[in-house]
Here is the input.
Amino acid sequence: MPRPPKKFVPTPFAYHEEIELTIDSLTNLGAGVGRLDGWVVFVAFTLPGERVRARVFRNDKNCSQADLVEVLAASPERVAPRCPVFGECGGCQYQHLDYASQMAWKSRQVGELMQHMAGITFPVNACLSSAQIWNYRAKITPHFDKAKDGDLGPIGFLAFGRRSQLIDVPQCPIAMDAINAALPELRASLRARASSFKRGATLLLRATDERVETDANATVCEHVGGLALQFLAGDFFQNNPFILPAFTGYVANQAAAGGAHFLVDAYCGSGLFALTLAGRFQQVAGVEVSETSCEWARKNAKANGITNARFLTSSAEAIFDEIAFPAAQTAVVIDPPRKGCTPEFLEQLVKFGPARVVYVSCDPATQVRDLKHLNEAGYQLSDVQPFDLFPHTRHLECVMTLAHGGGNSPQGQA
Here is the structure.
């Protein structure tokens, strides 16, 4: 048996000890969860109901981590992965799980997070997805390390469970066809110039208007419904264009459902929600801490003939100071970064007191953390809708709609 790492805790299992166990469920990180004599063991790339053999590589205070060695009894939901490096590359977690089951587990995991983190029990709608579940990503960012002896080495993504090791990815089945078509020539060009690279780098490939852009500072365009939205290729923009009309349409319906006449898009970026929702409201205000993003939003409003939306650059400490809309007639859409909202922002939001809050998040864990704060401040859930913008990965977007006071109080809510 190989020598364990210096910090390895040798109980309850020895380093690389092989164990057999049955998998009961999946975590929101995509790992299978099983128990052996009551002790929890996490095993990546396993599925509920499977009997597996696993090799332990870490013992934590309340659980152990193990690598899959062999599936002894497979789940009927297990399918053959489409990618030859699935399980080595850290990009996807669910290619071995049939797609209907992926969506069912994502809905279930949102509900479990609400119960465990916030003490809130509320029905979660079935996860929604676009018709295109392969070749959907409009942007990828492969990496490479500094050349060694004239060899550039792998050009791809981080290996599963590693902080620095790269896996070579010549083609990616979740990237758009145009990106995969551009990869061979780009990779060959990089390898031909291997000796010129003094350090590693991260590449950009973004599909836009029937081309693939590799310059982060170039202007690109994404079409959402009847709108054409421009932004810089390296800037953030939702990465699955095939679902965006349905996704933004759902947010629009939720924001307008309470009869609000005014809309605030509190993390507006280049204007995705503010502009796609503008037709449902008398006036729209987009607020953003980045003046560059605000300028793109203004340009997009003008280019699309939208005259009832204005965009404000505001500091994070005074996000609502220039909003003159009556709170009782206002809905607020928030789509924060993965880390969620800051306590300062939530305090400002509650102080402003909009009639309706539509919270869009790419990380349901931080979203539920913030939900607890809003719930305690008098906002009650009226709808929870996961969207699978990222098929075959553990990631999802979740739209939670909250109303200020009144309405039915679900179990666990204040």
